[in-house]
Amino acid sequence: RGDLTFGMPFGGASFGELTGLTTLDLFRSGVCECPEWMLELTGLQMLSLGGNLELGKTLGGARLGRLNRLTALDLSHMELCECPEWLGQLMELQKLDLSNNELGRNNELGRTLGLASLGGLTRLTALDLSNNGLCECPEWVG
């Protein structure tokens, strides 16, 4: 389990060498972009990136779809206006937290952008979309 002390500077190639790491919690850690070493953590099963507002601005360009063993992902509290396309590549994902974002903000109907890519995640058992200003549920949910 990865446990980074709050406020501790982190980075560099040494983290990429932790290939056996299964859980990484970076909630409200102040991370601004997904570091390259994170893509080397192919054994990750649980990843929390929530609460990092600056990261939310660049998350769409991240290549986190390479972390194909993820079963739980927290992207809450990031002011996301749309779902990153790479989410649809995480076929093992069982729990996804997208709460407290702005997924319904960018259009007048409150329809979320990018959620259609999640329809193929057949192992998904928990999806939190609360507090996003959504007016309707994606068709594939029901």
TrEMBL record:
Keywords: Leucine-rich repeat, Repeat. The keyword Repeat applies. GO terms for cellular component: cytoplasm. It comes from the Eukaryota. The keyword Transferase does not apply. This is Uncharacterized protein. It comes from Hemiselmis andersenii.
